[in-house]
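pasting for the record
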Amino acid sequence: MEAGQIDGIVVDLPTAFYIVAVEIPKGKVVGQFPAAGDPEQFGLLFEKDSTLVACVNSAIASLKSDGTLEQIQQEWLADKTSAPVFS
């Protein structure tokens, strides 16, 4: 891009927001593709045999069951995207 040989790149939306915020501040996110297939999954990494795994799994299950996790996803992942969806 710095050499003027690339006009654009295609990456997942969270990566795009990171790139324009940190790596290419003059860059612009012009849009996003509609969701397709299985939704993206997130995970956590623990030290092997960590005693925290059961506690964290329980906390996540509680967040899912009372709807809090869905609210967090909407607020921080879905509603914050200002990029239009390509049709």
